[in-house]
Structure formats: C-alpha cells, structure tokens
Write a structure and sequence with these properties.
Layout lengths: L1 H28 L3 H22 L22 E6 L11 E5 L2 E6 L3 E7 L2 E8 L3 E8 L4 E9 L6 E7 L1 H7 L4 E2 L2
Parallel strand pairs: 1-7, 4-9
Antiparallel strand pairs: 1-4, 2-3, 2-5, 5-6, 7-8
C-alpha cells in the first residue's frame, strides 16, 4: 500500500510541470469561436445524414413491453423459432435456413422471430443429418417451432418440430432474443 502511494505521489509531482505545456498545446489546437461554430454545424449535419442513412426501414415490433411476442403483422406470418436452455448439447448451435437463405442461428436458450409471406415454406437444419420442417403459414398468424439437438455420431443432430405458444411462454423467462 505504501509503495503504491509513493508511486502516485511521484507521478503527480512529475505531471505538475507539464500542466503549463499542456495548456499551451490545448490553446494552440482550439479554433477561433467562428470556426468552431462552423465545424460544429457541419458535424451536426454529417451526423444527421449518417443517422438517416443507417436507420433501417421500420421493422414490425416483435416483443411487447411485458416480454410477450407481439401479434403478427396483418400481411405476413410470424414464426418464432426457439430452443430450450439445456446443458446437453448447449455448446452446439445450428443455423435455420429456408433454401439457401440463413434465417437465424439457434443456440441453447435463444429464440428469433422470422416474418414470412403466406404459403408453404421449407425450413432446414443440418449437421450430420438434415431435418426439414414444412409449414403452411397464413398472414396475420403466429407459429412456434422448437429446435432441439440430439446425440449424433460425430456432432449433434438438430431437429425442428412444431410447437405452441403455451410451450414457448413456459420457458420464455429463460430464453434470450437473438437479433
């Protein structure tokens, strides 16, 4: 403790002579008030342009303030893919795809929400084995799909199966939304 105090005291004693030099450097780098105002205005305009460019189109609200899944948009189906939190296979995650498009990754204790056009959809997961879930979805409806992993020869085997809102809500407190 005493060594540390001595070090701090010594450091403070060494910095005092440099404080005057630091003030001179700061004064040299500070622009005149008119230039500073122009720079600030240009910086604000650039920030507004960047914010507008990086703001994505309005996405549907997926989770309500009380943590429940929000209703599906009127023109799309909403599919909640979830995976219970379990120790067995917990280190293994798998990707859910429709065709070649990756929709999201399911890890133990996670869920994500996918918005789909009404109609027939084929969702696949695979590692050693491939599992395909075919669903017919309607606009304005919410569907639940539970992902699980079972023991494989070299790696875990992911599975997708239809589920329901009650099952999801029963474990919702232990699940984390993946964006």
């Amino acid at each position: 403790m005493q060594v540390r105090l001595c070090t701090l005291t010594l450091s403070a004693a060494l910095l005092i002579p440099f404080s005057g030099a630091a003030q001179q450097v700061e004064e040299a780098l500070t622009p005149p008030p008119a230039a500073a105002a122009a720079d600030t205005q240009a910086g604000n305009e650039a920030a507004e342009v960047n914010a507008a460019a990086s703001t994505p189109a309005a996405a549907p609200e997926t989770v309500t303030s009380n943590g429940r899944i929000a209703p599906a948009p009127a023109d799309k189906a909403q599919i909640v893919f979830f995976r219970p939190s379990k120790f067995a296979g917990g280190a293994i995650g798998f990707k859910v795809r429709e065709g070649e498009q990756e929709l999201g990754k399911l890890r133990s204790g996670n869920y994500f929400i996918h918005f789909a056009e009404p109609g027939t959809h084929h969702y696949t997961v695979h590692s050693e084995a491939k599992d395909v879930l075919t669903m017919e979805v309607e606009e304005g409806e919410t569907y639940f799909v539970q992902g699980t992993i079972t023991m494989g020869v070299l790696a875990g085997r992911p599975n997708l199966s239809p589920s329901d809102e009650a099952t999801f809500n029963g474990m919702a407190d232990k699940l984390k939304l993946r964006e």
